[in-house]
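call fold(seq) -> tokens
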Amino acid sequence: MVACQSAFTNVSLAIRQRDMKECFGQILRILGAATKTAMNLVPAGNTGGSNISPFKKLPVKPELQMAIDKAKASAN
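ret:
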């Protein structure tokens, strides 16, 4: 549920910045992430901002992909 955790962090930041558009967008992402994560539909590289489609795949920097791969390997 990393996508939900990220959206909760983003919503708290939006509240502190008094950015209601971002706050509303993040609440929608939380609802979507709760269902999409369970079905493994969260796209790779998506930054989680409300200005990015929750279905859009974004490129992952090679150094970040190496860190992700390393973390996955150590988890298994």
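The chain has one domain: 2-75.
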